[in-house]
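Hey all, sorry for the wall of text incoming. These are the two entities for the joint prediction.
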Amino acid sequence: MLKTFCRWLAPGLLSAIPLLAAAMGNPQPGLGVGLAAGSDGALYAALVRDGHLQILRSNDLGQHWQAHSQVNSQAEAIADDAENAPQLSVSAQGALYVSWSRRFAERFTGDIRFARAENGRDFSTPRTVHRDQRLTGHSFVRQHLDRNGRLWLVWIDGRERLDNPAYQGSALYASHSDDGGRQFVAEYKLVDHSCQCCRLALTERADGSLLLFWRQLFEQGQRDHALLPLGRERPGELRRATFDGWQVDACPHHGPALAEDSQGRLHALWFSPHGEQGPLFYGQLADGQVLGQRSLGGPRAGHGAVASLGQRVVLLWKEFDGQRTQLLAEISEDGGEHFRRVPLASSQGPSDHPRLLRVGNQLLPVWHSTDHGLKGYPLP
Amino acid sequence: MMSRLFHAGLLLALCSLPLLAAPRVDTLDRQQAAALVEASQYRQPTLIALWSLECGYCKQNLAHFRQAQQAYPQLRLITVASEPRLAEHAALLASHGLDGQHYAYADEAPEAMAYALDPRWRGELPRTLLFDGHGGQQALSGVLDMQRITQLLELAD
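and here's what came out:
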């Protein structure tokens, strides 16, 4: 009798749990934001509110934002933390493409979702990008729209572990679309043994090819970084790009950043808390070595972004000073030979990772903090 | 009527026993965090386990800490989830059968909490703070097995 009664009561209890969770704590809404700039200089932002992706628009470099449209009419569990934030691209014709990681109820499981708005406002019903329907992790999606109009999606995928529980780390899978996201090719594996929980960096080179930069599990559990060229036809060869040898069974939850300047130099930022130096590093990636590797900021610097335009290179990061979180930049006008430091803002409360956007002929830091909201910080 | 209500209440209480048995998870702000890691207050070997729901290695550590607790009853365990409090925290701690004090972050910047708990910690998980009970302390990242815990806290002596 008791059992029957419990079965009857159980749905009521289960439905009360989200309410309980809300009443118990005060889980802060995710601050993770997806950003893109249109060819007309307008900024677009994708933010999660109550399971819906909202698109905001700014015409003044992120000083003010207006509600623009909503992506998904049916709420879903959209990852919105800084490391695993929604992705947004704008085409030259003003179409908007959005992708995100959806979380299932079971931890570490989810899928990669995508929606498109050809007119920049009315979104298609979201769909799952990959063919793999098994209950495993598909997460940390990274989206890039290249100059030829190909839309790339790369993500961290847990499927290898389903068949092989001893599998180390996760795999990286990719898909792409050549028709503005109407159809995606069946996903294909790029590499084995990536780190499980660090955002991926994807940058377009002068020749139009893409470079993927991410934290990889090397021999003896060394969590260093690797580069993989993504050609139009097939991926190139993986090569190790950082050599810190940080050896630990831990989740750094702290992915790298990469940009190429007009001379073809690769400017990288990454996190590697080994030794006595600060954990955030800057260096130029070369064949089999890092040139000019140095700590950027102090012992609590992290979550860097890097972008380049011509010979200008901008490094952006946040750093806790014991009281507040500072938003800091270093700017070089000579391809990374010399840098000057520029403080931009600070926040007492939680904040998103700092992000860098190219808007027309400038590089613009954007930061979503509880103190200042979502805001652009034009550089001198 | 009263009796029926009473029975319904009793049944509700019985059915929700697993929920009620879940440990209490308190929130921790930056001042409380700084106080929690004051080494002089610990008169017995103590572990502070920093963990999160998204961290797989953290759950390996929680299992090891449970083992250590069973083998060495003098070991005191404190857990801190490095994220805002969720109902899942208590459920997961209950499923590991961990005795001790449990906390999750209050609505604070995670970097402020990290600094208060351990200025040398850069946010990687799991992170474990070990107090020997005589004022000594150390902090380590990554998975710690039983042998390592025993050795670090000199529990076997």
